[in-house]
């Protein structure tokens, strides 16, 4: 039985559409034909075991890794031959695995770097900074601290804030909770829910499958460079194969 919510989701316009995507590194092919759609206003999760290709998929969307075959569309227009800056300018921001902050720079300067492609006025930047500080008050307290000296959780807030400063329509977050305490993960999930309610579309790679599937409305499961399952997150959470593969200890 499919709940009505799924029909509502499927009526939302497509923001990102990927068909038959292949990419890799050097001689090695990592993604073997990925089909994935992100709809406007959705939170979509990407799960799968280590080395499945989740980060490679995000890097390929961001044009950090070159597309070898297949196609991508953004708001119905082909994404073709763009470089990373152009992808960001389209409104696709990427919070990478490992956060990649400028460690010696202050929190606030890291945030402002996120806006480097925008032609935003000082007033707009100030407004957006304040919005991020409201979402993550800890960042405001630490605005002058060198980003590299902050805790893992604070750095993740800063990395997400930096992504938000580009005023994206789609925010991709790779490894949302890696190395963070359960309380902090809860706070981040709540912050993402607030952003999503305000209209931001999210694509999230999350190692913790329960967190991923509770946070998202729909999800894709990857294995060795392929999508092996997809659907409503609530259904995947009940799927015996998903439970067996990723929640071994919790399976009934
Ligand atoms: N820069 C690189 N050069 C060569 N091979 C790479 C590179 N980055 C990743 N790979 C390989 O691509 C495959 C997929 O890696 P990827 O990082 O995309 O997986 P993942 O699903 O994000 O894994 P994890 O959950 O561990 O982060 C792996 O076999 C990995 O060794
Ligand atoms: Mg990864």
Can you walk through the features of this model?
The protein has helices spanning 4-11, 54-61, 84-90, 107-113, 122-135, 137-141, 152-164, 182-197, 209-215, 233-238, 240-246; strands at residues 14-25, 28-39, 43-48, 67-74, 77-79, 92-95, 170-174, 201-205, 218-223, 226-232. The protein is α/β, with parallel strands linked by helices and 252 residues long. It starts with a helix and ends in a 6-residue tail after the last helix. The protein has eleven helices and ten strands. It has two domains: 4-91 and 169-247, P-loop containing nucleotide triphosphate hydrolases (Rossmann fold); 100-167, no CATH class.
Strand content: 25-35%
> Helix count, per DSSP?
11
The global form is globular
Tell me the CATH topology of the largest domain.
Rossmann fold
The total beta strand count reads 10
Span between termini? 21 Å
In the CATH hierarchy, the architecture of the largest domain is 3-Layer(aba) Sandwich
CATH superfamily membership of the largest domain: P-loop containing nucleotide triphosphate hydrolases
Provide keyphrases for this structure.
6-stranded mixed beta sheet, binds adenosine-5'-triphosphate, about 250 residues, alpha/beta, about 40% helix, globular, binds magnesium ion, Rossmann fold
Condensed summary:
This protein has 252 residues and is of the alpha/beta class.
């Amino acid at each position: 039985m499919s709940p009505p919510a799924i029909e509502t989701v499927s009526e939302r316009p497509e923001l990102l559409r990927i068909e038959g995507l292949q990419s890799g590194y050097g001689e090695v092919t990592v993604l073997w034909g990925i089909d994935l759609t992100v709809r406007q206003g959705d939170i979509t999760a990407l799960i799968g075991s280590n080395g499945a290709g989740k980060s490679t998929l995000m890097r390929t969307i961001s044009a950090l890794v070159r597309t070898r075959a297949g196609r991508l569309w953004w708001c119905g227009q082909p994404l073709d031959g763009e470089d990373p800056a152009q992808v960001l300018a389209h409104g696709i921001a990427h919070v990478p695995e490992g956060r990649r902050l400028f460690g010696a720079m202050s929190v606030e300067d890291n945030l402002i770097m996120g806006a480097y492609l925008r032609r935003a006025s000082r007033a707009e930047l100030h407004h957006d900074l304040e919005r991020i500080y409201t979402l993550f008050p800890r960042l405001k307290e630490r605005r002058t601290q060198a980003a590299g000296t902050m805790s893992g959780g604070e750095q993740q807030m800063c990395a997400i804030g930096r992504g938000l400063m580009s005023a994206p329509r789609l925010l991709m977050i790779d490894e949302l909770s890696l190395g963070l305490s359960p309380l902090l993960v809860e706070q981040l999930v709540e912050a993402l829910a607030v952003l999503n309610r305000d209209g931001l579309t999210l694509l999230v790679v999350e190692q913790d499958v329960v967190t991923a599937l509770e946070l998202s409305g729909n999800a894709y499961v990857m294995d060795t460079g392929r999508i092996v399952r997809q659907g409503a997150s609530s259904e995947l959470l009940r799927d015996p194969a998903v439970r067996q593969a990723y929640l071994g200890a919790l399976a009934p």
